[in-house]
Design a protein that fits this description.
46% of the residues lie in helices and 16% in strands. By secondary structure, it is α/β, with parallel strands linked by helices. It has 2 domains: 112 residues, Rossmann fold (3-Layer(aba) Sandwich); 150 residues, Rossmann fold. It has a 4-stranded parallel beta sheet with strand order 2-1-3-4. It has a 4-stranded parallel beta sheet with strand order 6-5-7-8, sandwiched between helices. Strand 5, helix 7 and strand 6 form a beta-alpha-beta unit. The longest helix has 17 residues.
């Protein structure tokens, strides 16, 4: 029987940092089923008490206590969660003392300070990058490919869209994506699609194991040629041949989270991070 654990992501703001840390750690425990609960905007003691009550109720109802990943700045709020019946991993509590020692300075607390390094220009960069990803999603438009930092290519349902959006939101990267269709793979076999030819140096391929692709496609279009194992296997084999034969860097994303995929693309493509 598969083990199950409740995971709380608690933050005084959006929980993105807590979720990013938590997912990056939990992905290494693939035999456990995690039930995530996100609790954003816990910015008062009253809200912390409500969250602690929710955590304690879960601890009493389940065989194992829940695990909590938190990014809580205010000491009073953090103390309430730390005293709950869950197992708490607090990012600030774990690192702040050592950072203060290293900088020889006490931290400036307060929610408004949590993202103090991010100004309006950083916000605008992220929004512009996300809008770019939406405008250039799934080959809808290719006229702005000259502005792309990276163009993700791969067969249908290999995670191109969520990766592009994450690259834009997290790093401010202009990421477009282009689906390798049957026409691209069969009629223009062994060729980079013509529309992509001027942007060869921006291409990055995504692939996946055929068993996983079949499962994903079957959820969308069950019992169809599109979702058959033979079709998935054939498309992936031809796409991977294209990547290898044309020296296009690529990544098998079967067991990777979107955070890991994006970080790997950033590293392998040496993309400049525009948003901090």
């Amino acid at each position: 029987m598969e083990a199950k654990r409740t995971i709380f992501f608690v933050s005084e703001s959006t929980t993105i940092a807590a979720e990013t840390l938590g997912h990056s750690l939990l992905v290494h425990f693939e035999h456990i089923k995690f039930d995530p609960v996100t609790v954003p905007f816990v910015d008062t003691v009253e809200k912390a008490n409500e969250t602690a009550a929710q955590i304690n109720a879960d601890a009493r109802d389940k065989e194992f206590p829940p695990i909590i990943f938190s990014t809580l700045l205010e000491k009073e709020v953090r103390t309430v969660i730390m005293k709950s019946e869950g197992i708490v991993f607090d990012i600030y509590d774990a690192f702040m003392d050592r950072i203060e020692d290293a900088l020889h300075m006490r931290s400036t607390s307060g929610i408004s300070r949590a993202h103090g390094l991010l100004d309006d220009s950083m916000y605008n960069i992220r929004i512009d990058a996300v809008n770019y990803a939406l405008r250039n999603d799934d080959g809808i438009s290719t006229k702005d490919y000259d502005k792309a930092d990276v163009i993700l290519i791969g067969v249908s349902r290999t995670g191109k869209t969520p990766t592009c959006l994450y690259l834009g939101l997290q790093f401010g990267i202009y990421a477009a994506n282009y689906p390798l269709t049957e026409e691209d793979l069969y009629i223009e076999y062994k060729k980079v699609p013509g529309v992509l030819q001027p942007y060869r140096d921006k291409l990055f391929g995504l692939t996946i194991n055929p068993e996983r692709l079949q499962k994903i496609r079957s959820e969308r279009m069950p019992d169809s040629r599109y979702s058959s194992f033979v079709q998935c296997q054939r498309e992936l084999a031809m796409a991977e041949y294209l990547f290898v034969s044309k020296n296009i860097p690529f990544l098998n994303i079967t067991s990777m989270s979107v955070e890991e995929i994006a970080a790997t693309i950033m590293h392998k493509s040496r993309l400049p991070r525009r948003a901090l």
